[in-house]
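Data availability (excerpt). All sequences and predicted token strings are deposited with the supplementary files. A representative entry, P-loop containing nucleoside triphosphate hydrolase protein, is shown inline so that the format can be inspected without opening the archive.
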Amino acid sequence: MSGDIHPAAVQHMAQHVLDQLQERRSRCPASVPLTPLFVGVQGPQGSGKTFLTSRLHAQLSSQPHALSVVVLSIDDLYLPHSGLRSLAESHRNNILFQGRGQPGTHDVPLGTSVLQKLKGINGADAQTVDIPSFDKSLFNGEGDRVSRGETVKGPVDVVILEGWCVGFFPTSKEVIEERWKEPVPTLEPDTFDMKSFVSVDDVLAVNEQLKQYVEWWSALDAFIQVDTSLSMHRWHASHSLKIKGPSSAQLSVIYKWRLQQEHNMKANNGGKGMTDAQVKIFVDRYIPGYVFFGDGVMKGLSGSEVAETERLPPWIGMGLSITIGGDRDVLQISKF
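Structure token line:
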């Protein structure tokens, strides 16, 4: 992909952002400085969301739009390597915290500070904002924070927060325990056996950490979800509603995509990164996140002790869903 050619998905993403920005501007007097439009982008590992987001940035920044766009990846908000090791040591029996990935492995105060500064970057007293950076290739693929992040200054039109768990919401102990009891048709035992890998207490520990992330999600105005073609609906009687859950084939393709991603990184950095076996274990740690919290993008807070009442995400009515196939080709576009 070169020149001014962009994937079909990017055209839809760009139009969605432009529509939301236009709507925002139409509701605000010209004399009042607008805060940036905050857009969440979520998709499975290796689905191409980072690539698509970089293309979206390029398209919105170029003519005829010429917008000022900032991209913040949740991956760049990971704890430094020392913090990840400390977390792993303090939760030795919870494999979900044995490396980066799950909620709890990010520097939440840092992310909150960066988002707050970006929210006010168009104000009269705004200062420059340092965007953190995390190098996944360091420490044999465990990764570490580095100092070569970007520094941005206002005015900024659009801020994009992208990541695999952006928009995932915590839920209640009762909901997790009920879901744990149910057979999980989304998983193939020969690929990943949930109950031999983690315990319900491990998942509950992640759920507790995820409560801190709700403040991040509250900053988002609009949303783009990159979904896969083999998604299905599962019935949870405890909720009396249908939720979208990944199919076994969908989860299998995540392993394939993430392995491709690691191979590409190592091909470009002299071979620094994880082995194929390490990638398999790495993806294993993410699977419970999709199963227990992934429906939060559409459902928001429900059955959670962190809210007195159920609450839909702030982006409902301003969401775009892009369905892709196993080769990352666009199959369907819908709004939510």
